[in-house]
Amino acid sequence: MYLYHFGLRELPFSLTPNTSFYLPLQSHSEAMQVLLTALKTGEGFIKVTGEVGTGKTLLCRKLLNEIPDAFEVAYIPNPALSPEEMRYALASELGIKGLTRINQQQLSQKIQLKLLEFNQQGKGVVLIIDEAQTIPWETFEALRLFTNLETESRKLIQVVLFGQPELDKMLSSHRLRQLRQRITFSYQLRGLSKEELKEYVLHRMSVAGYNDPGLFDNASLSALHKYSKGIPRLVNVMCHKALMLVYGEGQTAIHKKHIALAANDTDSIEAVGINIKAIVAALLLMALTIALTLVVVDMSTVKEWIQ
Ligand SMILES: Nc1ncnc2c1ncn2[C@@H]1O[C@H](COP(=O)(O)OP(=O)(O)OP(=O)(O)O)[C@@H](O)[C@H]1O
Ligand SMILES: [Mg+2]
């Protein structure tokens, strides 16, 4: 694609939450600080919420990488599970063997014994759950019961919930009031400010191997902020498209018009006034055609070389 054109080692705006691209923005650093402090206190539930695309999964992965060795971690990225499935998932994450042909009561006992075993080894156990807004109501109750397990001085397990704002809505319901009371620390992620957005874009380009700070002009950064509302995933989507457009034109600088075109071509961004989807599609297609031609040319060079 445009890797060669810009001299990049990898795609700078991939949507995968890859921790090697992590930038310690203020909101993410504060969240990480809250998480690490809360884990030290050993209390029940910790919650991090944020709009779609604000970096919760990335933060979750960062926490998994950085959590001190004194903690044993169980990670459940897809928690749309029944209470039974949640217990099995936790047991298997904790390395408990012999899970076949046992009933729920035996399973709960095995979990409790394993948690006590970790406790005796001086280890705290943390269950980290991403996409927590998808947890069914009854499964929340099963989670609350896990955190009832405790020694005289501390809980046997702590639960970290990462979720979209719908999680807060669920937790505010009367039905979950007991669990809500056990949330001792929470943090809400913010979108990027304009200054942070600039730093973010340049940081991702630099990690991917490109170091010219002049690639995006000021107007293009303002437009990026306006259309993305500071949501990192939307910034990534638009930057990727803008890079393709600029590559298609054979240029090396991104201007406001490229961002406007990219925004117009992105469904989750409010319409920007003019219907230019066809132009954008044609330009993106052109960029793809160039990329494919280069690949074909490359292949024939390889063939010639082989012969
Ligand atoms: N601090 C950051 N540094 C680098 N990249 C970031 C940062 N925050 C977010 N991103 C990037 O933004 C994109 C969206 O992040 P992520 O997938 O973690 O969002 P999310 O909040 O989990 O979204 P969803 O609610 O849809 O699950 C990813 O490509 C991620 O790498
Ligand atoms: Mg996510």
Automatic annotation (TrEMBL):
Keywords: Membrane, Transmembrane, Transmembrane helix
Transmembrane feature ranges: 278-297
Residue ranges constituting the ORC1/DEAH AAA+ ATPase domain according to the UniProt record: 42-171
A Pfam family matched in the record: AAA_22
InterPro entries: AAA_22 (IPR049945), ExeA_AAA_ATPase_DNA-bind (IPR052026), P-loop_NTPase (IPR027417)
Domain of life: Bacteria
GO molecular function annotations of the record: ATP hydrolysis activity
CDD domains registered for this protein in UniProt: AAA
PANTHER family tied to this protein: GENERAL SECRETION PATHWAY PROTEIN A-RELATED
Protein name per Swiss-Prot or TrEMBL: AAA family ATPase
Species name: Psychrosphaera haliotis
